[in-house]
Amino acid sequence: MHRHRTATVHGAKKKLDDVRSDINVTPLVDVCLVLLIIFMVVTDKLTRGKDVPLPKAKNFQEIKDTGESLIVSVAKPGGHVQIWWDRDALRDLADLKQHLDDELHRKASRPIFVKGDAEMNYGDVYPILIAIHDAGSPGVQLGTQELKENK
């Protein structure tokens, strides 16, 4: 039994410097998968603070986020008020006061942005606002969403 080489079966011998006309898709797929993974990881980090449904307001004023403001989010999942410092859950109001004292002593003029859940009452958010005021914050911005009227 005699074996044939593929180069002799298909004709002339192939040279190493011959140009290949087919596309190697493997590196393209690798790059696309890496970009997809990076995109999936980064998009979660683009939104600052805990994601809570904000109350809607007619007099909406959009403020550009410079990345300098502190973000405190408040929600009431399951009937219990939960507070977040950026994306970190806090134990209670005393923990918030400690974070505020530490942060405002470092940089006193830093603005604070409060994102309160639309389903909460003002009475649930009021102690957080008082704690921020007592810590010496120069002011508080409340997060709202634009109320779009149907015409």
Which descriptors would you attach to this protein?
151 residues, alpha/beta, Nucleotidyltransferase, domain 5, 4 helices, 34% helix
Describe the structure in your own words:
The chain is of the alpha/beta class and 151 residues long. It folds into two domains: 7-46, no CATH class; 56-146, Nucleotidyltransferase, domain 5. 34% of the residues lie in helices and 16% in strands. The chain contains four helices and seven strands; from the N terminus they run ααββββαβαββ. It has helices at residues 6-9, 26-46, 93-106, 122-134; strands spanning 56-57, 70-75, 82-85, 88-89, 112-116, 140-142, 145-146. Strand 5, helix 4 (122-134) and strand 6 form a beta-alpha-beta unit. It starts with 5 loop residues before the first helix and ends in a 5-residue tail after the last strand.
